[in-house]
Amino acid sequence: MSQLFLPFPETSELQYRVRENRRAKRIILRITVARGLEVVVPSAAARRHIPEVLAKNRTWIERTLRKLQDERRSASGKIRFPPTTISLPAIDEIWQVAHLPIAGTKARLRQLSGESLELAGDLRTTEWEVLMRLWLITRAQSALEPWLNRLSQRTGLQYVRLTIRLQKTRWGSCSAKGYISLNARLLFLTSELTEYVLLHELCHLRELNHSRRFWRLVEQFEPNWRHLDRALIAAAGTLPRWTLRDRD
Predict the structure, then answer these.
(1) Which of 32, 51, 67, 197 is buried most deeply by CB count within 10 Å?
(2) SS3 for 140?
(3) Distances from the Cα of 4 to the Cα of 16, 52, 77, 86, angstroms
(4) Could you give the domains of the chain?
(5) Residue 117's beta-bridge partner residues?
(6) CB 194 within 8 A of CB 224
(7) For residues 50 and 32, is the Cβ–Cβ distance under 8 A?
(8) CA pair distance 113, 197, nearest whole angstrom
(9) What digits encode the pLDDT tens for the residues 18-73?
(10) Which of 111, 200, 182 is nearest to 143 (CA)?
(11) What pLDDT digit, counting tens, does each position of 82-115 carry?
(12) How many CB atoms lie within 10 A of CB 112?
């Protein structure tokens, strides 16, 4: 683990992890419960710029670390309860979640008529989160697959198989075999951002990289891709916590 010495409020020693990712276009700072402060660099040569980037973002780092500590203290003494509303902007749905707490019984999830869910059982455990994540994957499968098919027909880019899963850092991926994987959490984004991700992965069927040729292909179908790409990065921190396991 690399270290940088800065006069932080609670400790003078700031610890951080460095990870290389050739797909990164610049040095990226991430702070998560699992990893703490992580610095993503596009190459080994970029490591020399880390102290400068950390110093420039010192205020944000301090504020985010304090918030993380507060959340940890809060989580240790409080129970996380289910949401009463789930908004899915990508498909223009707002689901109402009714709670029927029954202490000491296994949590159960039932989909009612319309955009309504019912959670019953002991809601003080994390069982309800598992059920909600499974429901989200199912809902994403039924919504994203026909969406991807329409875009595939429009662009002429044909995929072989689609998989829906929950991921923390990737919105989607595409393999050389033509297999596309999409993150179920896409449903929490705007429809414009979600469609951009689907187009992005379809373009990888022809260009399995992020070369100039790839971005030229993306631009044929989405001229506003630069703005959408930036918005996608900003959206990552706005998603509900229950969509991921605590260790993710």
Answers:
(1) 197
(2) helix
(3) 8, 11, 32, 41
(4) 2-78 (no CATH), 85-132 (no CATH), 136-238 (3.30.2010.10)
(5) 97, 111
(6) no
(7) no
(8) 30
(9) 888 887 788 888 876 656 788 888 888 788 888 888 888 888 887 777 776 655 55
(10) 182
(11) 889 999 999 999 999 999 988 888 999 999 988 9
(12) 11
Kind and range of the H or E run holding 232: helix 225-235
Residue 187, both tokens: 């449903």
Burial class (CB in 10 A: 0-12, 13-18, 19+), 167: middle
DSSP E strand boundaries for 93-211: 93-101, 108-111, 116-121, 161-165, 172-174, 179-183
CB-based contacts of 188-193 (< 8 A; 24+ apart in sequence):
188/87, 188/88, 188/89, 188/90, 188/238, 188/239, 188/240, 188/243, 189/89, 189/90, 189/232, 189/235, 190/89, 190/90, 191/89, 191/90, 191/91, 191/92, 192/228, 193/90, 193/228, 193/231, 193/232, 193/235
